[in-house]
Amino acid sequence: MKRKKGDLLLSWQKKPVGIYLGDYSYYSFKDSIVCFYGQAYSRKKAFKALFYTENGLRGAHLRGAHLAGANLIDAHLRGVHLRDADLREADLTFANLRETDLTFADLREADLTNIKYDENTVWPEGFKPPERW
């Protein structure tokens, strides 16, 4: 079976180790934190992955990202643009949301326990964040 760009690469133990980028190159998860989310719709798309380095996703533009139900426990999301993102039921426990743009984000039933944020965090209009930790 021929690999396509975006295919997940698995070890012999069936553990995710990277993503095929085409032309015999790949992105290794070695130095990344990987969280998987979503439902299986077909064998080719068994799950979705969000991966980030230990330095987080600072400055990343994830406008409109579908992260409903995602496991983002202790995620370093400082300075990430999550405008219009779907974060319903996402677990953001201990996540760093300092300087994060959450304008129009859907945070219904998201777990915001012990999140870190500052005066530069932009919340959806009318949203009341939990007490600062």
Structure report:
By secondary structure, the protein is mainly beta. It has two domains: 1-30, no CATH class; 40-133, Pectate Lyase C-like (3 Solenoid), CATH 2.160.20. The protein has no helices and five strands. The strands form two sheets. It has a three-stranded antiparallel sheet with strand order 1-2-3, with no helix packed on it. It has a two-stranded antiparallel ribbon with strand order 4-5. A hairpin with a 5-residue loop joins strand 1 and strand 2.
What key phrases describe this protein's structure?
single chain, 133 residues, mainly beta, Pectate Lyase C-like, two-stranded antiparallel sheet, 5 strands, 20% strand, elongated
Summarize the structure.
The chain is an all-beta fold. The protein is built from no helices and 5 strands. It has 2 domains: 30 residues, no CATH class; 94 residues, E3 ubiquitin-protein ligase SopA (Pectate Lyase C-like).
CATH class of the largest domain: Mainly Beta
The outline comes out as elongated
Number of distinct beta strands? 5
CATH H-level homologous superfamily name of the largest domain: E3 ubiquitin-protein ligase SopA
Unreliable segments (pLDDT under 50, ≥5 consecutive)?
37-47
- Topology-level CATH name of the largest domain: Pectate Lyase C-like
Largest sheet: spatial strand order: 1-2-3
Helix-strand sequence: EEEEE
Mean of the pLDDT scores? 76
Structural class by SSE content:
mainly beta
Helix tally? 0
Using only C-alpha atoms, the radius of gyration works out to 16 Å
Main β-sheet description: 3 strands, antiparallel
Euclidean distance between termini CA atoms = 50 Å
In the CATH hierarchy, the architecture of the largest domain is: 3 Solenoid
> How many structural units, i.e. domains?
2
Strand content: 15-25%
| Percent helix | under 10%
